[in-house]
Design brief:
The protein is built from 3 helices and no strands.
Amino acid sequence: MPDGPIPRDEDAGEAGARTTTGRGGAAERRRRDRQRPTLSGLGTRVEQILELAERQADDHRAEARREAERIVTAARHEAETILNRAHEQAAGIGRDLSPAPPAQTPPPGADDPTRHA
């Protein structure tokens, strides 16, 4: 028996039923009925399909969780790197802004060009 519905021409079936009388018409209807798919076993098949869908959904969720964890870990690592670099730069700037040691002042009159030593 085929898995799916069998295409049938309703008009041709009705016309045949009208022209066939007696037992021939009933036999034709029984033959057509046997060719139609039945619903027996459909519940089992639907259950199998739903179980498969649930397993696939679980797999997708687990993969999504793993991917999210990888992304968060990479983002944290990058943020830590940026923060460390910023701390290093701030420390360097802090050193540059510290007061300069006092310059040694020349003895009085050392810059006087009229004075000879």
